[in-house]
Amino acid sequence: MQQIYPIGTLGKPWGNEEKAQWKAQQSVKRSYQEEVLDKLSKIVPEGFQLKQYGALPYDEARYPLYAVVPINIDSNKPSALITGGVHGYETSGVQGALQFIEAKLATFKDLFNIVVVPCVSPWGYETINRWNPLALDPNRSFYPGSPATESAQLIKLVNELALPLALHIDLHETTDTDNSEFRPALAARDGVTHDNWNIPDGFYTVANTSNPQLEFQKAVIDAVKDVTHIAPADENGKIIGADVVSEGVICYDKKALSLCGGLTDAKYVTTTEVYPDSDNATPENCNEAQVSAICAALNFIK
Domain Peptidase M14 spans what residues (predicted)? Predict the structure, then answer.
């Protein structure tokens, strides 16, 4: 059954008035400065540097955008991109990336050129939102001329780095609020009907339909099993409405959907999906699942 959303008229897409009404209801709930920037200033290991690649126009001083990049690029090494916080509300995507930088990045520096972008959407992080202030989903906006500045500036960074990427791992969560808030808001914004799917209880990955690399996905799933449980298929053999192609693995056409996971032409691509609302999940457990997934991905291709 379609959930009635308190903004807009059922069946009619939002205009500027409804989008402004939605934005006016958002508020800052946590600090990007304290929870991300202050940490970043202390944890970058030797051989890497912080690179500011832009800032969000909503408040450039409050929302600078940073990547951790190698000081020297070695063309003889494979290169990897790690992105977190494309959906700002998905906390372990951000905090897991920061934990990887602090605890594990240095151990891989002799094997790879690694670029980590820990928080693509800091406004979304602070307000605990899937969208940006324009009611745009950055993770549906990775295409030329993107109107989502979060996506456009990450595209620009990747193009300027010009690294032949072997790996891209994009860190996400699937939360109970996907059904209670974000999918109803999406249906209302677009004036359409969405049937909510069951929220999967556990970790899963999203592979690329055209190049799933299932052995690679399995390596990630197997590593995360040591940290948290893997999401089972529902009664229809699906996870979030998509067919399960391997334990804990579904596929999306990432380029067609303009997902962050379709940003590059890397051979090995995966999107992690942590379930933070499980009865046995903790913030620490969720962050560790993200770190385990990153390490497994890197170890698979080294």
Answer: 28-302
